[in-house]
Amino acid sequence: MGLDFTLVQLRYFHEVARRENMTEAARQLNVTQSAISTAMSQLERTLGLDLFIRQRNRSVVLSPAGKRFLAEVSDFLEASDALGETAQGLSRSLSGQLTVGVFSPIAPTRLPLIHNEFERRYPDVRVNYLEADLEQLQRAVIAGDCDLALTYTLGVTDRFESFLIDVVEPHVLVSQNHRLANGGRPGPVYLRELAEEDYIQLDLPFSRQYYDELFRIAGVVPKIRHSFSGYETLRSFVAMGHGYSLLSQSVSSGTYIGMQAVDIPLRDDFPNIDLAILWPEGVRLNRRGQAFCELSREVLGR
Fold this sequence. Notes:
Layout: H1 7-19, H2 22-29, H3 33-47, E1 52-54, E2 60-62, H4 64-87, E3 96-103, H5 107-121, E4 125-132, H6 134-143, E5 148-152, E6 160-168, E7 171-175, E8 198-202, H7 207-218, E9 223-228, H8 231-239, E10 245-247, E11 261-265, E12 273-280, H9 287-300
Helix pairs in contact: 1-2, 1-3, 1-4, 2-3, 5-9
């Protein structure tokens, strides 16, 4: 005789396991906390297993048995979703909702290209976006606030699965009138060639540490003149000649103030950055997420 547990209980378990908090899981599922607690107790009794280790602050941690069970449940729920789509005649076209997190600096230039093509191919999928910095995106993915995230892999832990989209090389950004701009057609330079000039820092979690490491490799101590968390603010200050910066993403040279900035490639042997799509470890992407990954790589090109 099979075990008497329900699909609803498994979905509740999956959400609690992802958030490690029954209150947060209940809020996400739009049910009461008592409903979650009761469902988990019934599931544990049915299985004869302690799936969670309860903490005093009402958070929960998966037990060893719970971790093994989660891996099986994730596969089962994915298969269940696929079966539901097939039963509703949706196997030939995707539908439903997908929430995608995007790293703020790359959102204006990369995301519209992806969204335009995704909407054209999959008009029945409603995609919502969450724009944030690298640290916030990782928290959002783990918390389940977004299904996946398009981001750089700086600071990423082993709590994530990833799908590589592109490899990005760092470069120097200077004003159009800078001595190294060469009329907008600059040749590659070494970072040390700008060591005595003012540096404008992109002050975002993980990004800042990455650029600090590039300076360390180059043996240069930057003369930090300004520090901004806003990508376009930084680019405008550079375009006005207030200093140079280090960035990873190459975009059009125009800025909000109408002045030009110039990308200069680097000769230094610096580590590149992976642009990838992330989602929680042990979670299988649904067909909408898989389609978004594959189309992103196709559009951005690798």
